């Protein structure tokens, strides 16, 4: 991949990846995660682990992003387990840490974070401006299945927000 192609890729995917990670984390963590995706992608190119006959570079990058987010969630669950064991009344809901966000946005982020997999990942990809075809390619699922998960996720978020009195 040439330098020009790399620049185009970073300019194209960077903002979408940022929104993907921002939907679950702070701005600083989202920026670090985007950098980590590109660092891993560059590493895969240098070690010849990427093969274009298996898919596009964009889909490969999204796969790295999804796996990175899964790794972060596993680490967070481990830390939460430690906090619960040592200080059971000290745990803080991450949604309450975003003081600059409106209450509606906080409620929506909380409702999305409460979704199960793969609905959560698919909805966050959609919120990051990914096309259904890109999500399908990144998650290796048929487009019809992606659409079904989107519908189910939107219904679940709408139900929770109504129950909380936000809608």
Question: What does the model show?
Answer:
About 70% of the residues lie in helices and about 0% in strands. The chain has helices spanning about 5-20, 25-45, 55-85, 105-115, 120-125, 130-140, 145-165. Mean pLDDT is about 80; it is low at about 80-100.
Summarize the structure.
With 167 residues, the chain is mainly alpha-helical. Helices cover 71% and strands 0% of the residues. α5 (119-127) crosses α7 (143-163).
Observed structural traits:
single chain; 167 residues; mainly alpha
Give the H and E element order: HHHHHHH
| Amount of helix | over 70%
DSSP summary: helix tally: 7
Strand segment count: 0
Overall structural class, as computed from helix and strand content, comes to: mainly alpha
Stretches where pLDDT is under 50 for at least 5 consecutive residues are: 82-100
Question: Topology, please?
Answer:
Blueprint: H1 3-22, H2 27-46, H3 57-86, H4 103-113, H5 119-127, H6 132-139, H7 143-163
Helix pairs in contact: 1-2, 1-3, 1-5, 2-3, 3-6, 4-7, 5-7, 6-7
């Amino acid at each position: 991949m040439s330098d020009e192609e790399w620049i185009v890729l970073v300019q194209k995917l960077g903002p979408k990846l940022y929104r993907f990670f921002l939907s679950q984390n702070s701005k600083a963590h989202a920026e670090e995660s985007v950098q980590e995706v590109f660092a891993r992608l560059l590493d895969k190119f240098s070690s010849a682990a990427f093969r274009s006959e298996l898919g596009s570079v964009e889909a490969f990058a999204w796969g790295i992003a999804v796996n990175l987010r899964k790794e972060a969630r596993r680490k967070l669950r481990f830390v939460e387990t430690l906090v619960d064991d040592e200080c059971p009344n000290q745990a803080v809901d991450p949604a309450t840490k975003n003081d600059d966000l409106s209450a509606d946005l906080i409620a929506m982020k909380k409702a999305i974070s409460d979704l199960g997999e793969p609905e959560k990942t698919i909805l966050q990809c959609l919120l990051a401006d990914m096309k259904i075809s890109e999500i399908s390619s990144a998650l290796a699922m048929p487009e019809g299945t992606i659409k079904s998960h989107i519908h189910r996720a939107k219904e679940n978020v709408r139900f929770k927000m109504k129950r909380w009195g936000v809608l």
